[in-house]
């Protein structure tokens, strides 16, 4: 039954594309010039940033679920494969098919500016997820504060190490805003609060192989490494554990030579490792909340609602980030052995 | 002036007396990178006391073993005058599909529901590699398409299949047998290092002393001449392409054991490093020239540079730039020390 429905959808999409093409792509005249106001059941276009990371795959699973729950008239989502040019093309396709609001997660926060400008002219509100565009107008940014990830990791490791010792940090790609935010926050927090801790920053481009090689080398150079901060559990968890296992460094938390590990993402495997005592903590990046609130704000935009800076009813804060843009900063909880079984963690809700 | 003495001439059925000299020169070309590697080792020893320890050097070997197998495959294919870009996708896809066929179809394990016995994972993986290589061969040799475009298309297709089969997630639940080769140590040295070493020794012997191996140089140098000389060129090239796929799949097994999981981006972009290592090591992109020992030196050099930069804690923002400059300097050094023009 699924394949049948899918093929029907495909035909529908194909038909829509043909119609859009025959209408010459201009959507301004006639159809709801006020775009934002009025029809809460207008179509919402969603673009996923990539399909090859554990975190984004969870997000992709959550989006249709919450679309149903929140009664959002979501079109078939597109996927921009981590390329900004694909994202631009996808947005054009979606608006051409009649999307009246767009949810996207531009991984290149600079190059999306002209697209945002065009959408603003067409009066199509945009919700960005995970990243805040450098330029341009958006209705709402739904994002966990990545600087807080770095800070939480720093405080956890700093306290566990008693303010001294050697720490290895697997940096994400420094060309991405999230990798940069985490790296900078971690570095400045360590410098300020725990000057006795030496941090070895390992550039990895989110590649497990590079992290593995760097950790092996670093352990040879400094056998007394006491802590590891990995900026993405999906990429670094297994390689890290594998190196520690092969060098006999994987010791229980009460062992004096235990290496404290804090991670980011909160995928189910990280939570499992916390339960086993292999790693100590992770910052759970809320994949479910991203999906839920992105769609919520997209619908709110269609209804013509407006929001003010300040605390919200779901434990987050809306902040004015300048440019007239608002950002709903969702909480990203630190997960340790104490709260790892919390049902509210998205890593506990999927994959079982 | 010594140009005529490059290895491919050794393949023409020359009288026994003429054979010895070319091999000596071939060896000379082999050693082109050795001075650069020695300089690197000296610098490394000065910069960090850790660098020259046995532990560090064996770790470098382990980190490079999967890459070494890919370079071995690519070097043979290049020598035979062809191209294979799809190796970087095979290294990820072959293990993923093999695993998916043996693990249960839960959300976590991402199986396909077949749940074949777990011991089949490794043979399956190698078979899948062979199949991809065979398909490349079919398109290149029978359909007479350009190897570059065929394998580029294959790279994209196989990468897509990888993401499709794994659902884009990392695979964490792997059969222990599959992890063994990449994780265990044999006699103090990682099993993967032994495997890469043995593969290279076999490769070097076959390409230097066996008729079938020498025929790669003949084909890469001049296909028509090779054909005229009675070499079944298509059969040889096809075999090399299949072997390349198998080696890439084997590299995938080693890498999986080393990393403990298969990421959805495993191998992505690796083909550039593979080509860099092969070309630095003296393999000609035009076919017919270069030796496997040279390619191995290329792999070792890239590994040492990476290791050195990590030990020196080079700033992440400048890592790529410094890495590239050192590679260029090493190339110049090898050019100066051997006096041979690079191709």
UniProtKB/TrEMBL annotation, chain A:
Cellular compartment(s): Cell envelope
CDD domains xrefs: PBP1_ABC_sugar_binding-like (cd01536)
Domain of life assignment: Bacteria
Protein name as annotated: Carbohydrate-binding transporter
Family of this protein: Belongs to the bacterial solute-binding protein 2 family.
First and last residue of the signal peptide: 1-25
Listed InterPro entries: Peripla_BP_I (IPR028082), SBP_2_dom (IPR025997)
Periplasmic binding protein domain segment(s): 44-305
Organism: Kibdelosporangium persicum
Keyword terms of this UniProt record: Signal
Automatic annotation (TrEMBL), chain B:
Domain of life: Bacteria
Subcellular locations according to the entry: Cell membrane
Chain segments annotated as transmembrane: 31-54, 60-80, 87-106, 118-141, 148-166, 186-210, 235-254, 266-285, 292-312, 318-337
Topology in membrane: Multi-pass membrane protein
Protein known as: Sugar ABC transporter integral membrane subunit
InterPro entries hit by this protein: ABC_transp_permease (IPR001851)
CDD domains to which the protein is assigned, alphabetical: TM_PBP1_transp_AraH_like
Main localization, broad class: membrane
Key words of the record: Cell membrane, Membrane, Transmembrane, Transmembrane helix
